Amino acid sequence: MVFGITAAAWIFSFGPQSSGGRRQFDSIAFDRQTSKAHFDDKIVKDICEGFQKHAKTLLDKRPELASLITYIDLTTLAGDDTPLRVHGLVDKALEPLDATIRGQLGTAADAVHCGAVCVYPARVADVVNRLKQHRQGNRIAIASVAAGFPSGQYRLESRLLEIQLAVQDGATEIDIVINRAAALGGDWKTVHDEVRDMKIACGPAHMKTILATGELQTNDNIYKASWASMMAGSDFIKTSTGKETVNATLPVSYVMCRAIKDFYEQTGVRVGFKPAGGIRTTEEALAFRCLIEEVLGKEWLTPKLFRIGASSLLGDIETSLRNLTKA
Ligand SMILES: O=C[C@H](O)COP(=O)(O)O
Q1: Sheet of 72-75: strands edge to edge?
Q2: Is there an atom of ligand 1 within 6 Å of 309 CB?
Q3: 76, 77, 237: which to mutate for ligand 1, most atoms within 8 A of CB?
Q4: Position 282 pLDDT exceeds 90
């Protein structure tokens, strides 16, 4: 445990201080929680090389590769997305493997499908319509980015409305973005309060909070943004939109997972983790899976707590599985 504060103390610090049903930001407790964490770049790099080494040992393990598919939020976030493209994405997410690979996996193949599809708000209805045409359409979640994705540079009112409309259209998971201007200015209360309001706007939908780590400049900011987002009620924290210059990396993921672990130790609340953006190969995805197992433990290796946001990873996993079939 990084901090010497018990779960009961955390509940005292953060839990009851709500006003009108809204969690209030306790800056003293936040500072106390986040001021003690330090991440040395060289040490973090060495630790991450360990995850990459571990990943290489899993490359020929068919069940490990198949389980990667269950963590994927199969994504299309393009200006030229159409209903037809989204329908194809839904079909692929539900039945990702061809007959040969399925045969090699045996009965285990039946449980192999993506965790969710992830689309822009205007395309949520296309996902809903296509899922209705599938017998097992309820097996995958419907994720939508919202809240001024990817920049977040919009008034809070419009970001909240966008979330509500996406949920109304059928989204069961909402991927929001934090206010990077507030984060870079050290205004963690604004980061927290906006995320809290967005969580309320999500209603029954799960909320994944994107930190856009490539724009947060320091590990310290990433750790603080993780804490502010979790204190505000995020179900998941997510690295990137896929639209920043630098997206998901192992070092930023390590910092975020350490924050998730510390938060769990203080509160007993398990927050999920979603690396996203630029993850294209089986080996890269396995390294994130190893990071999760080693920092957070095997109980996080479930689509309920671990997702990988990716538009082109699935094809590489299929190729890896096919090559194992030939071997
Ligand atoms: O949230 C998911 C990301 O936007 C996907 O990024 P990608 O296209 O680089 O895989």
Answers
A1: 272-274, 236-238, 206-210, 173-177, 141-145, 116-119, 72-75, 308-310
A2: yes
A3: 77
A4: yes
